[in-house]
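Re: the request from the purification team.
They wanted to know what the chain is likely to look like in 3D before they choose a buffer screen. I agreed to run a prediction and write the result into the notebook, where they can find it.
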Amino acid sequence: MRRLSLRLRLALAGAVAVTLAILLSSLGLAALFGAHVERRALAELSVQLDQVLAGVERAPDGTLELTTAPADPRFRQVYGGLYWQIEAGGQVLRARALWDYEIPLPADTLGDGAEHVHDLPGPAGQPLLAIERSVTLPDRLGGDAMRAAVAMDRTDLAAARAGFLRDLIPYSALLAAALILAGWAQIAVGLRPLGAIRARVADIRTGRARRVGGDVPAEVQPLAAEVDGLLAAREQEVARARTRAGDLAHGLKTPLQALMGEAGRLRAEGRGAAADAVEEIAGAMRAHVDRELARTRVAMRGRQGRADLADVVAGLVRVMRRTGEGARCDWRVDLPEGLAVAADPGDLSEALGALIENAARHARTRVEIGAQPRGGRVQIVLRDDGPGIPPDRIDALMARGARADTRGSGLGLAIARDIAEALDGTLSLRPASPGLEARLSLPAADSVLTDR
């Protein structure tokens, strides 16, 4: 399973955290609002209870009655949501809203003037919030203990809290979206240095830089230092390996020269066939050594340089015109002025020289050389009007030591390909009409190698 990016993981974690925080805060606000509403409701019930107690009088027949009821019309509406009830001397008085229902006050003992708050069932089974007070009636009312209670339907409180929560949800969602976007922006700003480091590593890979450098945030400085240390160690190892390869190739040239001398001695002794065989083997070995030396030089220099394409091609064409194969060709060169590639001029000359020599060798009358910039690279095209080669032989021709005819060492195209690959380029062959077309793509010299 593909792992999520660091940016996406941080964004998802932040979004989840923000969502949970907003959800919990919304529930907390709803609970606080509910508690506030309940306190306000108890305060109002206490005032209404005072009104109920103040309205108790003795009727002419000696019974108690409520002469002045609270003004709220819900006390008079059946199951209207507000209720009062009085118990004294075995007599029970209740609001019209209760109809024939009696609030089941708990059998608790209250001190004179003390209040209790209860959750009790209502006339329709709904929960009630009730406040109860016990008082002693004055002598003119008989001096009995009286319990008075005022209650309200909790459904109204729940509806108020639900309405508050409904009103809160859109604003909470808007706040959550704003915080998530702010977190995404923060992540983008915070991770921007990683993008800069990625670009620097890409510059190192393409040869435009040598080190990541130290001008990075402190949090990623250890990573940059380790990468630079790894690059330095790798450069040292590669340099030692290239030096050993170069020493080996140079060491082989002396024995090869001795073999060529031995071939001359054999020829002087009249043993021409043996001399030819030794010279052929020694020549092939020298070609391979030259190729390895060329690869070593290119690998050591890499893309550290700038080569003007028109100048390099003009020099190579001037040399080819002095050869027998090049003198018979019509050279058509069409190169834009100022077009340059990121390569050492000598490496570019060696790669193009192999391609130009191959084109001149097989051309009948004409060789065309053109180039154009394309997406940060330079596309160089060489085309001859020779007999060409079948498409199924192109891959074999690019292999090491292969050749289209018996002339040459068969390493020119292979060397050109090796140099192109060392320069982060490509070399391809394709049939033309007529002849053969070689396309060499190399990085354009659009930047200078710098040490950050």
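For the purification team: Residues 400-410, 447-452 have pLDDT under 50 and may be disordered.
Please add any questions underneath this entry.
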